Amino acid sequence: MEIGFVGLGKMGMNMVERLRRDNHQIVAFDLDDAKLKEVSTFGADGVNSLKDLVARLAPPRGVWVMVPAGDPTDSTINQLAELLEPGDAIIDGGNTNFHDDLRRAAVLAGMKLHLVDAGTSGGIWGLKLGYCLMIGGEVDIFRRYEPIFKTLAPPGGYAHVGAHGAGHYVKMVHNGIEYGLMQAYAEGFEAMHKSEYKLDLPRIANLWRQGSVVRSWLLELTANALEKDPSLKQIRGYVEDSDEGRWAVQDAIDKNISMPVITMALFARFRSRADKGEGTFGEKLLAALREEFSGQAVIKD
């Protein structure tokens, strides 16, 4: 299948490579010329402008946008909307606020264009393992691009979850849950780190992966991080947060939902930055986990 792709960051580049492995035809654009050269090495067609990208695609066109949320996504979608024709579709795979999806979908509908919101999880491991895709928008447009979703996801790893905004809403809640899970692991391993026993934390993390009720991929990444640096001496406990965690807490406030675990996990990240990342062992583990699954840069000593 043919599709345009805008944004060749860590995830975007890997997604294009995965699509090419399944022989999809990709026309790609990024502001960084080096990225365009890189994407051409596995057979994608790199172009120098959005205008060129649209011109290379046959109607009905589909363009996947993988750029930062907020103004960069707004600007990209607005520019594409002026270049595309009725019946074409824009797929937003970034970390967008679902309220923005509703606004954009209404504007694009007035231009007879379609919007698909694709909440995307998988981080830097998606190239190898596939991406979990939570997709919102019109069902018939979802079906049109299902071959793309099928290639990007592992078996059973994509689904149409509802109308416009539903995909990014589900991804927002997903990330809130992720905050809580990571915080629980961080607190538990900090307790063991400070224990009077001389505990082998990498060994325990791997032990819990074998039949334990707390086994998970995050636990696997915990084991990876601890095997590299059991005391986490090289990592500062400075933990960034994504907008989605904040949006999840705000959504709970708006709907009068009790969400203490996710809220406190978000506030714990705020606290980690108060002392410029000197941090506790648990905060260092949180930072290490973010690096493990998303490739986010950490502050190292």
Describe this protein's structure.
- The protein is an alpha/beta fold and 301 residues long.
- β1, α1 (10-21) and β2 (25-29) form a beta-alpha-beta unit.
- α10 (201-208) packs antiparallel against α11 (217-228).
- The protein has an eight-stranded mixed beta sheet with strand order 3-2-1-4-5-6-7-8, sandwiched between helices.
- 43% of the residues are buried.
- Helices cover 52% and strands 13% of the residues.
What's a concise summary of this model?
This protein is an alpha/beta fold and 301 residues long. The chain has helices at 10-21, 33-40, 50-56, 71-83, 98-110, 126-129, 139-144, 146-152, 166-193, 201-208, 217-228, 243-254, 260-272, 281-294, and strands at 2-6, 25-29, 45-47, 62-65, 89-92, 114-121, 132-136, 158-162. Strands 3-2-1-4-5-6-7-8 form an 8-stranded mixed sheet, sandwiched between helices.
Q: On the 0-100 scale, what is the average pLDDT?
A: 95
Distance between the terminal alpha carbons, to the nearest Å? Answer: 47 Å
Name the helicity range: 40-55%
- The rough form would be described as globular
> Helix segment count?
14
Tell me how many strands there are.
Answer: 8
Largest sheet: 8 strands, mixed
User: What is Rg?
Assistant: 21 Å
Question: Hey, roughly how much beta strand do the residues contain?
Answer: 5-15%
Give the low-pLDDT segments.
none
Structural class: alpha/beta
Order of helices and strands: EHEHEHEHEHEHEHHEHHHHHH
- Strand arrangement, largest sheet? 3-2-1-4-5-6-7-8
